[in-house]
Request: fold
Amino acid sequence: MTRNDVTETLIAARIAKGISWAEVAQAVGQSKEWVTAACLGQMAFTAEQAEVVGKLFELDAMEVKLLQTVPYKGSLPTVVPADPLIYRFYELVNVYGTTFKELIHEEFGDGIMSAIDFKMDLTREPDPKGDRVCIIMSGKFLPYKTY
Reply:
């Protein structure tokens, strides 16, 4: 059994039980964005969090242990994503990546936005022309150091 197997088990169990990611997050006590990433194998749960997820999805002891392992980050199967929704994020970075870079460097200096010290909030914005997806990403700025 691998961590990827546990991810597949969680996805199937969530669908079978009719539980939303927000409900899983509420049980764990963290944001829906972080808990979903952890359930999908991109973050490691603490022992306590893994126990909650294990009970919710009726996992065995080994599966609960695997939820606590440090993951191999990056879940896309190809360099250019084929899934249409994920591809749009790839397209967004291709079109606006240089703009993000230029404006961050202008505002903060030479450095990066951390994906480690990071938070995200995804909400739905009602709009008469069609609802909008609002994603707020907030990452700590990490300046490059000279030595």
